Task: structure prediction
Amino acid sequence: MILYADDDPDDHEFFREALSRLDFKTELFIVWDGTEVIPKLAAVKPDLIFLDINMPKKCGRQCLKEIRSDNTFADTPVIIHSTAQDEKDINFTRKHGANLYVVKSCTMEAQMAVLKLILSLYNYRCLSSTNKNDFVLLDHKRYSRNLKLDLK
Result:
């Protein structure tokens, strides 16, 4: 089960489409802003949480702090999914317990490559890194090659 928090409907569809093309069987719950994250977590316990940094009403940074302050979600991977590559956001989210910081992809191929990598890391219980270079995902071509993706 995946919880995806983002205020952009185009990003919702892009994420949903990439996930469906990977043929990964899971439930996807989408929330539109940060104020919906914690109430949704009270209703469902996702396996993965994707948070956009810049959401209205309550930003992803605030949501991350609240998620990590609740022991129920201490082991739930949180992936920051943002268009920004702001060093302050990267350092903040790393410091406050995010597992990965992913810069949003522009192409379906890139989105699928990154999602496949994240799902593979999740399956192998390898979504925590102390190395900053492994915390930020930027180069989808490298992931595509490493995972031998056949994306058409």
